[in-house]
Inverse folding.
């Protein structure tokens, strides 16, 4: 698990080296969420005042538990650097700690103030102004991410639409739990695949929950562990998947915005020109992927790997994605 | 066999125990899992109520769609999946989307009756 005492000393030593001998470590606290890595919040108090920071660390300090498609923490840190250079709002990285070091495989970044909880961002008065700006902010951020020169990036997995269909179909077939709606989605996606776009850097999980939103709009883009080289429409559509609208279904973009406005902002910031109909195929793929992911989480219960009620119950969320798929099928042509 | 208490009554009693006695004494992860457990029992209660009729309706629709009869809904759904996979049945097949929509609405009425996509579908 990684305890505070295990990392407190090496972290304090790093703080003294980085901020000067008088720097003190304060308020070290493990944040909830993130099973594939530890996330710790802490402050360093030095002559320059308090510095709010975050430590992202492999579980127990050693990489192993990350899923096969997740990039390493060092790669994630490199992506924060490269996207920052391209004008994406991301937390600044202060330190990368290699495997086998005292801190363990990890990196330290600045802690950006703001909210990540989708329900709060969509509901609370505090984010009223932010909600009016978020669609344009997201369009611009996505255009800048997709414009990052790929040549300068560390090695990333390459995953286009057809690769993802193949991957998730193999997982679905492996469960031998036939579900006609998912079956229809696989068949339809294969029969209607659009021409691939030029591959770009894709964030891979760009949605509320992984975005810091402050009162003025988008504060920072977090959680780059699913970054890959892929199709830009994947990121745009993932932000539209109904599971990430947190009940505000009428707003296709994340529960807060309209797709034409997002696509306009995306194009104005240098992104390709897409129409809402170009996003439909990718949103269907997104809902299908999330449905299969719910089946994966349930299978952890079925196989006995994780006997919790929560893992059992998540199997009853696959139908959420099935109704989203049906609503998307009924809407096809409406955006043409 | 007796049914006093019935399965429904037993589940209601356990759910009330979790909600009124156990959950208020728990904190953190355990409190979260108690809420999940209570929700799972609510799902079972809805299932007891909705599944018999919903599954009979689903079976009748599947038999009409596939032009055959079978003992179980599972077998018919397996056949439908194979027909979709082979291309014999697709999105433009008359009655397919309406059948899948009715089935999924019934399923969600058990699984997650508050889900936003269900409201969109039944609007």
């Amino acid at each position: 698990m990684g305890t505070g005492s295990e990392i407190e000393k090496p972290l304090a030593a790093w703080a003294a080296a980085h901020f000067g001998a008088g720097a003190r470590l304060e308020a070290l606290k493990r944040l909830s969420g993130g099973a594939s890595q530890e996330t710790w919040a802490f402050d360093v108090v030095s002559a320059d005042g308090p510095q709010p920071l975050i430590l992202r660390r492999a579980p127990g300090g050693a990489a192993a538990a990350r899923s096969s498609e997740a990039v390493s923490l060092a790669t994630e840190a490199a992506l924060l650097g490269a996207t920052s250079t391209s004008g994406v709002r991301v937390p600044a990285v202060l330190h990368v700690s290699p495997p086998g070091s005292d801190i363990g495989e990890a990196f330290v970044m600045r802690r950006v103030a703001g909210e990540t909880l989708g329900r709060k961002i969509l509901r609370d008065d505090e984010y009223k102004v932010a909600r009016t700006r978020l669609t344009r902010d997201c369009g611009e951020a996505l255009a800048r991410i997709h414009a990052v020169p790929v040549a300068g990036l560390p090695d990333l997995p390459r995953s286009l639409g057809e690769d993802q269909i193949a991957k998730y179909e193999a997982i679905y077939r492996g469960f031998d739990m036939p579900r006609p709606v998912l079956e229809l989605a696989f068949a339809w996606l294969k029969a209607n695949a659009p021409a691939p776009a030029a591959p770009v850097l894709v964030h891979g999980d760009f949605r509320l929950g992984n975005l810091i939103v402050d009162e003025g709009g988008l504060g920072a883009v977090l959680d780059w562990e699913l970054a890959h080289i892929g199709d830009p429409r994947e990121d745009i559509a993932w932000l539209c998947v109904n599971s990430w609208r947190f009940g505000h279904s009428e707003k296709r973009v994340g529960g807060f915005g309209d797709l034409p406005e997002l696509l306009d902002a995306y194009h104005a910031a240098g992104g390709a020109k897409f129409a809402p109909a170009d996003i439909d195929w990718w949103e269907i793929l997104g809902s299908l992927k999330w449905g299969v992911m719910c089946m994966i989480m349930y299978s952890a219960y079925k196989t006995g790997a994780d006997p919790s009620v929560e893992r059992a119950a998540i199997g009853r969320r696959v139908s959420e994605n099935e109704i989203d798929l049906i609503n998307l099928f009924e809407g096809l042509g409406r955006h043409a | 066999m007796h049914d006093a208490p019935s399965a429904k009554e037993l589940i209601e009693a356990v759910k009330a125990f979790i909600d009124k006695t156990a959950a208020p004494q728990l904190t953190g992860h355990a409190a979260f899992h108690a809420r999940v457990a209570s929700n799972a029992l609510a799902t079972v209660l809805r299932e007891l109520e909705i599944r018999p009729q919903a599954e009979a309706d689903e079976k009748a629709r599947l038999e009409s769609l596939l032009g055959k009869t079978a003992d179980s809904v599972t077998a018919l759904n397996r056949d439908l999946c194979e027909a979709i996979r082979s291309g014999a049945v697709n999105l433009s097949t008359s009655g397919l989307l309406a059948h899948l929509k009715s089935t999924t609405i019934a399923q969600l009425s058990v699984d997650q009756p508050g889900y936003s996509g269900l409201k969109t579908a039944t609007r």
User: Anything to note?
Assistant: Chain A has two domains: 4-110, 118-331. Chain A touches chain B through 31 residues (CB under 8 Å). The mean pLDDT of chain A is 92.
